[in-house]
Amino acid sequence: MISKAQAKYVQSLHQKKYRQRHGAFLVEGGKSVLELLSSGVETETVFCTPEFADQNRAKLAPGPAPVLVSEAELAQVSTLATNTTALAVARRPPEAPLPPALPLGALVLALDEVRDPGNLGTLIRLADWYGLPGLVLSDTCADPWAPKTVAATMGSFARVRIWPRPLAEWLGALPAGTAIYGADLHGTNVHRVALAPAGVLVMGSESHGLTPAVAACLTQRLHIPRGPGGGAESLNVAISAAILLDNFFRGQ
Amino acid sequence: MISKAQAKYVQSLHQKKYRQRHGAFLVEGGKSVLELLSSGVETETVFCTPEFADQNRAKLAPGPAPVLVSEAELAQVSTLATNTTALAVARRPPEAPLPPALPLGALVLALDEVRDPGNLGTLIRLADWYGLPGLVLSDTCADPWAPKTVAATMGSFARVRIWPRPLAEWLGALPAGTAIYGADLHGTNVHRVALAPAGVLVMGSESHGLTPAVAACLTQRLHIPRGPGGGAESLNVAISAAILLDNFFRGQ
After folding, report:
1. Which end of chain B is more exposed for a tag (fewer CB within 10 A), N or C?
2. Could you tell me what percent of chain A has a pLDDT over 70?
3. What's the mean pLDDT when you consider all of chain A?
4. How far apart are CA B143 and CA B192, in angstroms?
5. Are strands B86-91 and B43-48 parallel, antiparallel or unpaired?
6. CA–CA separation, B15 vs B6, rounded Å?
């Protein structure tokens, strides 16, 4: 059973302010909770149904002894309309160091005003797929520890490093010669240029593009060609990032 | 002002059963409503605030005279938590013919059990970007006319053709020699093969992959290489489709 104090604490973590205050975040749904327990991220508490505990005894073993709850209790404290298995409170990992000259020979993804948590989560998953060292986030991005972001990462939240930074300043302070790529309708056709995954790839908000101070830092603008007869004006930010990353990794 | 009967009708269209019965669907938010009015899709009714009507007089002119409503009235009938501008009821377009041998020399996207309306909408937008003739949907896909799908298409719902079909049967009846591509972890590296956009690209559900009967129809399996050191097990279905489509259109 979940105590009144526990329920209040879990519900407080729906809000960014309390996630920051407590240095904790929620991991919702059975699959994500098992990913959490197999990762190096510290787990405070696991709440799950007796059925889930029975079925996942070995996988739950590395974590704290689970608090057994009913589906109704889970639904009451979860942000999900249906969460019939498990929920965990995890400790926010300490920030890993980000060398001023970037991890050598690696590509870092930087996001400028990506405000949608679903898009941010999908981008974190994508960074994990390509083995990028991590993501630099402008302070106008969605919270990487919001429940919707964590859910959209499909477990990658535990593997990808996140560095919140004032983006234009951070880009401006990188060593001269660092390649800083960004998407731009008037940029070079990404199919006509050989790209190596080193430097920074900056992605902006879908509706407003890059903020001017960030756009001014780019050293190369890339353009994803639209198909012949294509009608859409633009692509979703995570979709664009995926296509660009695939082009960066073609030669690997 | 919105009448009681109008409110009841609009709210009924939140549900698939009534969208089918009435041959109608909802378009929510100002931007999407304006896309609707500039498309060839028939519009039954536009509900909008007086401010929105004032600001978009010319763009609203091709549609029926708008019913002016308050933000509170909009919120009451909308599926969106915040819709402060406009909502329209549109007529479902009649199905365009799909030749048994496919549109010659074009690539059709076929979706097998893509149940998430957000993913489906993003895939429709992607098909529009690449100028594909349309999408064939298995009957286990999300409803292409659901409000969440329509919103995720970002206006592409009005330009892309949709053909619901029993997928395995439809694929099985295509002329011999039609290329049928699908994503598969054990397929050919998509960077190591020259692809032309002709035939069918089949995408399955993220969690379960292609259903066996559909998988049996593939003539070529393609694999998106993961980055060195990458940790994620898989990619989102719309992300995978985007990367594959970019590879199909490299030579164009």
Report:
1. N
2. 100
3. 94
4. 36
5. antiparallel
6. 15
* Domain residue limits, chain B: 4-91, 107-248
Of A79-88, A113-122, B27-36, minimum mean pLDDT range: A79-88
Polymer length of chain A: 252
Check A242 against B247: CB less than 8 A apart.
no
| Length of chain B in terms of residues written | 252
Cα B122 from Cα B235, distance rounded (Å):
14
Mean pLDDT, rounded, for B136-148: 96
Are A109 and A241 in contact by the 8 Å Cβ rule? The answer is yes
What ipTM did this prediction achieve?
A: 0.93
The two beta strands, B161-164 and B180-189, are unpaired
- Examine the pLDDT at A53 and tell me if it is beyond 80: yes
- The residue whose two tokens read 């269209």 is B13
- Count of CB atoms situated within 10 Å of the CB of A229: 11
Domain spanning B107-248 has what CATH number? 3.40.1280.10
Segment B172-204, tens digit of pLDDT = 999 999 999 998 888 999 999 999 999 999 999
CA dist., res. A7 & res. B156, Å (int): 43
Q: Calculate how close chain B gets to A137, using CA atoms only, in Å.
A: 20
Q: Is residue B252's pLDDT more than 90?
A: no
Domain B4-91 is found in CATH 3.30.1330.30: yes
Residue B54 has pLDDT above 80, yes or no: yes
Determine whether the interchain pair B228/A132 forms a contact, defined as Cβ–Cβ distance below 8 Å: no
Nearest to A131 among B230, B242, B243 (CB): B230
* Cβ pair B235:A249 closer than 8 A: no
How many C-beta atoms lie closer than 10 Å to residue B18's C-beta? 14
